[in-house]
Amino acid sequence: MRRAAKTAHPWRIRIFKVSPSELIPPFYLWIGLLLLTIFTLLPFLYLITSSISQTQEIISGHLFPDLPTIQNYLKLFQGDIGNDFIQALENSITVSLWTTAVTIFVGLFASYALARIKFPFRVTLLFVILAMQLLPSISIIVPLYIMMREGISISIPFTSMVILHTKPLLDTTWSLVIAYIATGLPFAIWLMTGYFQSISKEMEEAAYMDGCSKIKTMHKIILPLALPGVAATAIFTFLNAWDEFIFASAFTQTYASKTLPIAVREFIGKHSIDWGLMTAGGFVASLPPVILSLFLFKYIVSGLSDGGIKE
Amino acid sequence: MQKILTASKKERKDILFAILLLAPTLYLLLRIFILPIMQSLVWSFFKYNLMDGSAIEYVGLRNYVDISVLNDFWISMKNTSYFTGFSVLAELAIGFICALLLNQTFTGRSFFRGIIIIPWAMLTLVNGLLWNSIYQPGYGALNNILHQLHLLEAGTNPVWLSSSTNVVFFAAISDIWKMTPLMTLLLLAGMQSIPASLYEAVAIDGAGFWRKVWHVTLPQIKPSLLIALVLRVIGAFRVYDILTVFTANPNTSVSYLTYNFAFRYFYLGRASAMAWISTIFILILITIYMVLLKRQQKEQ
Fold this sequence. Notes:
The structure holds two protein chains of two kinds. By secondary structure, chain A is mainly alpha-helical. Chain A has two domains: 4-51, no CATH class; 73-305, Orthogonal Bundle (MetI-like fold), CATH 1.10.3720. Chain A is 70% helix and 2% strand. In chain A, α7 (122-134) crosses α9. By secondary structure, chain B is an all-alpha fold. Helix content of chain B is 75%, strand content 1%. A two-stranded antiparallel ribbon of chain B has the order 1-2. Chain B is flat. Classes of the chains: A mainly alpha, B mainly alpha. Chains A and B meet through α3, α6, α7, α8 and α9 of A and α2, α4, α5, α6 and α7 of B.
């Protein structure tokens, strides 16, 4: 009886049967994937369709514009609005690149030491760095604000000799670079230490045998092997700096120093919201991280699974 | 100390080299992280109002006492807990299902794995703006779609972001949209390391979907599940960006309230005290996270 039913509907077996090593039958799998795609892409598509709509059409409730327009994008890059927006774009690029460069350069040495050299308090230091990585920005925003307000002075340790005293740094992109290094450096070190630890020790010891110095080994053997990990860390640092909002909104009030999130936030006017312009700005601001993540998906995933997640 | 004194010459050289490599990092972190956060602890015991010109004076625990009797603080605490609990649990549930789906073998898998990263990569602030436009009464996409599906009666037009509870609920939805991909990828990494033979073994006993999940998947990914959970709680607790788009009401989260005390009224002493309450709370979670992490490393 059962056998007859089976032969009568072979398609039924095919879409409801599951192989022993799998969990979900094909039928439910594709229903799930359909829902997943809708849930993931629909809001994003709405952002795009809004950005090519005239405000009039959005206000009258059209989800898809009858008359698509690129006017919002033209407005974004022209006139007074354009000047401010392009300035914000430049600021975001400057801040993110400087943050990434300094963080990776300084962090590389520290993570090499933490991963490769035995010294007292090594594990304690690693855990302190992990804790710093996980603390929220709100924990240090007040003292950093005062620091930026008064300017930073660099003195020789244990003496009162001041080498350098900067001007107040509020409303400069430097204030953001410094704040992002403070939060980004522990994160980068934590990630890169993990990568360095995953490189086999034999390679390094073989290099010593051949008479390589410590610096040379680090430069010639370890660094090339760790490069994918360093690249992943650099992407994360860049994305975090690009996305950051709370420091930026506290430290920068002038258009000369504002970054993209702040500039986009300001499209919400006091009385009305220009949805078309705002969504266009939001789309442009999100485009670099989205493209970067899609192209470097492999690195991002390896970075995530190695335990370094911030936001 | 004992170790350093008894170290051999080679070991001492190693330690020196490590200090050299660590020096720039230690200097930077001390200067722009450790000392500032300690400074803020000191200020939390002072009356320090930046804008009204009053003197900075030591007030002992008064800032903390003031906060503990402040109604706004408890409301914001309640809202933050609600936001964190709701969004993290939903992300965990949806992320688990998505990870199960994406862990199967099927054509076009890398496409589906790729698209889920889009919400995560978007700017947090733009995410807030996007969902704010979706929730708008009248022309917003949510009401629009609900009308078209006849789930809302034609004449009705609810204002979704009316009360602070609603704001927190709808902000959590947008956070779920953005952060579920992260949870999915984390759990997926855990699931990929489960050997197929385990599933095949229970399949011989005739186990279906639920028994496979209950007896194989869940016990196997429990360590990464716990770690992802704690990490997301730490991440969700600091919510600020989305709420600042949705509402001008700072009671919707502790971060928002702290920010307002600091940069709207410039009550830096009180803001520092409030920031330290958050810091201590997060430090407790960090300790739990470290214990879990150590246990996982031991098991491997």
